[in-house]
UniProtKB/TrEMBL annotation:
<feature type="modified residue" description="4-aspartylphosphate">
    <location>
        <position position="55"/>
    </location>
</feature>
<protein>
    <submittedName>
        <fullName>Putative response regulator receiver protein</fullName>
    </submittedName>
</protein>
<dbReference type="Pfam" id="PF00072">
    <property type="entry name" value="Response_reg"/>
</dbReference>
<dbReference type="InterPro" id="IPR052048">
    <property type="entry name" value="ST_Response_Regulator"/>
</dbReference>
<keyword id="KW-0597">Phosphoprotein</keyword>
<dbReference type="InterPro" id="IPR001789">
    <property type="entry name" value="Sig_transdc_resp-reg_receiver"/>
</dbReference>
<dbReference type="GO" id="GO:0000160">
    <property type="term" value="P:phosphorelay signal transduction system"/>
</dbReference>
<feature type="domain" description="Response regulatory">
    <location>
        <begin position="2"/>
        <end position="129"/>
    </location>
</feature>
<dbReference type="InterPro" id="IPR011006">
    <property type="entry name" value="CheY-like_superfamily"/>
</dbReference>
Length: 137
């Protein structure tokens, strides 16, 4: 499984990486622009991400705009019938407008409010239909 974590907060990135690392390959981006570029590069290499964990409030490009651009990259490089990456929006904001925008404007697949809790994240990933199996060493 291949994961992309996009978050400007070091502690959040570190926690997400620690949770996801046993289940696959994890890339990190520190803002929306870097996240979109990482996503584009993975698609061009024919190895798109299975899951993107995307913070909403970030410098340079916020998570909402990054999500819309990620969906555009999928259409552009993988075609309309492509398998969309699962995207979990992660934010300190428990705001109805942010949730609405994430789902209806950006086509997010899930939304989690910080603080990130391991069990909740793993349950959410399973609910999205992704099977998390520990990598053999």
């Amino acid at each position: 499984m291949k994961f992309l974590i996009v978050d400007d907060d070091f502690d959040s990135r570190k926690l997400l990486q620690k949770i996801l690392h046993p289940f696959g390959y994890v890339d990190i981006a520190v803002d929306g622009e870097e996240g979109v570029e990482a996503f584009r590069a993975a698609c061009k290499e024919g190895e798109p991400y299975d899951l993107v964990c995307l913070d909403i409030l970030m410098p340079n490009m916020d998570g909402q705009k990054a999500l819309r651009e990620i969906r555009e990259v999928e259409r552009e490089l993988l075609g309309e019938a492509c398998r969309h990456a699962k995207v979990i929006m992660i934010s300190g904001l428990d705001d109805n407008r942010e949730v609405h925008d994430a789902f209806f404007l950006g086509d997010a697949t899930s939304y989690i409010v910080k603080p990130i809790r391991k069990q909740l994240l793993l349950e959410e990933i399973a609910a999205l239909g992704l099977t998390l199996a520990p990598l053999s060493e």
